[in-house]
Automatic annotation (TrEMBL):
Belongs to the IspD/TarI cytidylyltransferase family. IspD subfamily. SUPFAM superfamilies: Nucleotide-diphospho-sugar transferases (SSF53448). GO terms for molecular function: 2-C-methyl-D-erythritol 4-phosphate cytidylyltransferase activity. It catalyses: 2-C-methyl-D-erythritol 4-phosphate + CTP + H(+) = 4-CDP-2-C-methyl-D-erythritol + diphosphate. The record marks 153, 211 as: Positions MEP for the nucleophilic attack. Pathway: Isoprenoid biosynthesis; isopentenyl diphosphate biosynthesis via DXP pathway; isopentenyl diphosphate from 1-deoxy-D-xylulose 5-phosphate: step 2/6. It holds the Pfam family IspD. This is 2-C-methyl-D-erythritol 4-phosphate cytidylyltransferase. The record marks 15, 22 as: Transition state stabilizer. Keywords: Isoprene biosynthesis, Nucleotidyltransferase, Transferase. Signal peptide: none annotated. HAMAP family: IspD. It comes from Eubacterium plexicaudatum ASF492. Catalyzes the formation of 4-diphosphocytidyl-2-C-methyl-D-erythritol from CTP and 2-C-methyl-D-erythritol 4-phosphate (MEP).
Length: 238
C-alpha cells in the first residue's frame, strides 16, 4: 500500500497579517514549513506532494526541499485560489496512491502517532480525521449574531489535519463536489460527507497539533517548538 501526504502551503495567510506568508515565517531558526515536512519525511508515509503558490515554488524547492534534503518530496505543484482547489491539485498529482493524507502546511507539530492513527482508521473505515474535543462551549449563531443552539460540549470536536482517506474515494468525492459546489468547503471530511453522505471517522489528534492562523498563534508556536524538539530527541513526551 502506498501512502502519500499532500502538504498544503499555497495559502496567503490573510488572518496572519504578515508580509511573508505564514508557512514561511521563521520559528526557532527554521521556516514553519520545515517542521511540517520534517514530520512527514521521517514518518511511515512513502511520498510527499508539496502544494505551493506559483511564485513560491522556486523558493520551496531550493531553500526548503533541497536545503534540508527532504527526499520524500516527489512533486512541488501549484495550488489554487481556495484550500479545496489546492487539495484537488494535490489529489490529481497523487494518482498512484492507495491512501492519501491531506495536511495543512501551517500545522507544524504533527507527530508519528497522529499520522499512524489516521492511516489505520483510513484503512479500516475509509477515513481517519485528526481532531480534539472542544475546550470552550460552542454556540451556533444566526446572521445577527444571536445564539441559536448550544451543542453538548462533549460532542463537539475541533477538526485538525491530517485528514486521511482511501485515494479513490476522496478523489471521486472531490470531483462530485467540485461540479456542484455551493458552500464554502473548509475541510476534506466535509467533501466526503457532502458527496457520499457517509460519516467520517474521527481519531485523536493533539492540542499541540495547532494550526498557525493568527498573530498570537506565533507566540504559542514558539513555546511549543521547544517542547517539540525535546520530544523529537526523546527527552520529553506529550
Ligand atoms: N492553503 C492552500 N491553498 C489555498 C489556501 C490555503 O494550500 N488556496 C493552505 C494554507 O497554506 C495552510 C492550509 O491550507 O497551510 C490551511 O489554510 P489556512 O489556515 O486558511 O491558511 P491561509 O488560507 O493561508 O490563511 P488565511 O485563511 O488566513 O488567508
Ligand atoms: Mg484560508
Amino acid at each position: 500500500m502506498k501512502y502519500t501526504a499532500i502538504i498544503l502551503a499555497a495559502g496567503k495567510g490573510t488572518r496572519m497579517n504578515s508580509t511573508v506568508h505564514k508557512q514561511f515565517l521563521e520559528l526557532d531558526g527554521y521556516p514553519l514549513l520545515y517542521y511540517t515536512l520534517q514530520a512527514f519525511e521521517q514518518s511511515i508515509v512513502d511520498d510527499i506532494i508539496l502544494v505551493t503558490g506559483e511564485e513560491e515554488t522556486a523558493y520551496c524547492r531550493t531553500e526548503i526541499v533541497e536545503r534540508y534534503r527532504f527526499r520524500k518530496v516527489k512533486k512541488i505543484i501549484h495550488g489554487g485560489a481556495e484550500r479545496y482547489l489546492s487539495v484537488y491539485q494535490g489529489l490529481c498529482a497523487a494518482d498512484d496512491s492507495d491512501i492519501v493524507l491531506i495536511h495543512d502546511g501551517a500545522r507544524p507539530f504533527v507527530t508519528d502517532a497522529i499520522i499512524e492513527r489516521t492511516i489505520q482508521a483510513a484503512i479500516q473505515y475509509g477515513s481517519g480525521i485528526a481532531a480534539m474535543p472542544a475546550k470552550d462551549t460552542v454556540k451556533i449563531v444566526d446572521e445577527e449574531q444571536f445564539s441559536v443552539r448550544t451543542p453538548a460540549r462533549d460532542r463537539v470536536w475541533m477538526m485538525q489535519t491530517p485528514q486521511t482517506f482511501r485515494y479513490t474515494q476522496i478523489r471521486q468525492a472531490y470531483e462530485k463536489v467540485l461540479e456542484c459546489q455551493s458552500q464554502n468547503i473548509t475541510d476534506d471530511a466535509m467533501v466526503l460527507e457532502l458527496a457520499s453522505h457517509e460519516s467520517v471517522k474521527i481519531v485523536e489528534g493533539s492540542y499541540y497539533n495547532m494550526k498557525v492562523t493568527t498573530p498570537e498563534d506565533l507566540l504559542i508556536a514558539s513555546a511549543f517548538v521547544k517542547k517539540y524538539k525535546k520530544i523529537k530527541k526523546g527527552i520529553d513526551r506529550i
